[in-house]
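Progress narrative, work stream C.
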Amino acid sequence: MIIANLSNAMGISGNEFEIRSLLYKLAKKYADSIKIDVMGNIIAYKKGAKSKRKLMIAAHMDEVGFVITGIDDKGFLKIARVGGIDPRICVDKRVVVGRDKIPGVITSKPIHLLNKSEREKIVPFSSLLVDIGAKDKNEVKKYVKLGDSIVFDTIFEKLNQKIIKGKALDDRLGCYIVLELLKKEHKDDLYAVFTVQEEVGLRGANVAAYSIMPDYAVILEATGAQDFPNKKDINISPELGKGTCITIKDGNSFASPELLDMSIKLADKYNIPYQFKKTGVGGTDAGVIQIAGKGVKTIVFATPARYIHSPVSISSMDDVRSTFRLADVLLNNIK
């Protein structure tokens, strides 16, 4: 299952080696040409039937994770975050380290050694270490080194016929949809882009957008679903199973009014389930693509996923299909 392979692949921001290799092999089958730019973005081009305009579809391949910043004398790894990760969800989680995927565990001071005040506080990230079972610093150096990547050790699986769970669904779900769109024939020239370093500042998309200078861009994302037990005053939208999430506004971009109006009309016409992102926080590659060059008309379609930026996320394949369908009809109906 392609989506499982994408989720399981390693690829933190700035070190997307494994996921990039996988995406390149998959995208190459359907592209007229394909390249990896200086930043590490994959840009796959497919000529359109009429080639009047440049259409860009984009999803980021990178994921949140960690990097080794030090090794102490006892063989424990000091780490730094790559992307937004809450330290509360890190303690005692299984991880894999480096290209050889050495197994390890994120560790902290055991609860029975904490005093009362320590137990009432969130464990600071600076106190977290990774234990790979080595006896000392010299043994660690046989397997890993400073700068090696660390990701959560989570294996993709289907919880039932519709619901999936895995790591990095933000934004491997978007990557999967871009691959599916690349298989299709389109009226206009299509640039399918898998960007890097989105989680640390939308860096790859910035370079790719200036390289392509598209007329329109559709960004395929994953967004945090809020339909789990929560405070009454917190909006529960988006929800799993309610369809693709059309983003009107987020923390750094506004949807093109033209594309927004067209997307809603097409979704209604073709009975594609959709909902709206009702919070203006967070950001996507749309933020830098939109302001590239003389400006690009952009819109974001996001698949809801619970618990993003954590060891495991949960999403619905029905919503994945809704995101794909709306992006597909939009690309072929832009006037």
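Work stream C, second folded protein:
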Amino acid sequence: MTDAPPLLDLAGLDGVSERIYLFVVHRGATSVVDAAERFELEFADAHSRLEAMRDLGLLSRGLSDDADYAPVDPRYALSAVTDRLSDRITRIRERIPALADQFDRSTAPDTETPETRVVSDPDAVANWYVRLQHQATREFLVFDRPPYVTSRLEPLEAVVLDRGVSWRALYTAGSFEPEGSWEEANRLAIQGEQARIVPALPVKLVIADRSTALVSLSLDGVRSDAIVTESQPLIAALHDLFEFYWARGHAIPDSRDRAEELAPAAADPAEIGRPSSGGPSAAGSSAAVTSLEDERMRSATGEEKAILALIASGLKDESIARQLGMSPRSLRRRSHELFVELGATNRFQAGAEAARRGWV
């Protein structure tokens, strides 16, 4: 069994002085001679130790040269000692940042290293987003998901696309909750944005030219903490993260008017009234084969692709109907028809079969 460490070593008392102090507290008023004999010390050594405890406020002594040393009430004396120690600890803590800064400067390499900084102010985060759009010359990659610190309808993207920058955006279901967001995504697709939808994204992310990245540190809608980094290893990891989700996303279909897909082809006037060369039975057989081939080979319409993509993203029926400009009842009817045609009983099966057919 080891001895317990000295109680008052932080106050500057070694083990012998602490035992003298405890002896005086137990005995009461004690002379230098008593302390020296008790602990087998030279008179000068015992006197020096008692004076040190007096300086700490642990002991008191009368005015005469031969006065005894008496203990001060530990409730006050030791509290005063701990208060002084706490003050010293606080001063040490206050010096840590300045000393750390001096250490970083003294150990920093001579060459410049990529900078990574934390940005917390919402306006500063928004300014960095705009700055990276201006900065991009080749490629702009985006994880688009709420919460937003800038307007969802970003006018600068069209300018960036006009410069020939490749812009790829990944959206989540939450991206299309705001009114008009689906129309905006399709407008940007017409202008050249490549877009896909995934059910969820872990962070908000922007990568410009694989040289600078802006990535969120909080998604609670209260704080806007983010980091801006030019660290190439970190940017490479973030780029891999983007490609991982991109490979699993569903392409946003072009929802421009496709009336030509649905309108019947105009009949050749020369063919009107001319009987089929195969006769009635042959025509019926040919129609049946054609119908079967059409069922196997047909492509999904723009509306069907939009419904399937938004369903796969996890967006609720009411939100999908609102974005596509139809009633929830009409959406449920069209979804049911698609599920029947795809042989699916749930969203997962519908998405898998639609992907197999190349519809999404």
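Residues 255-293 have pLDDT under 50 and may be disordered. No further action is required on this item.
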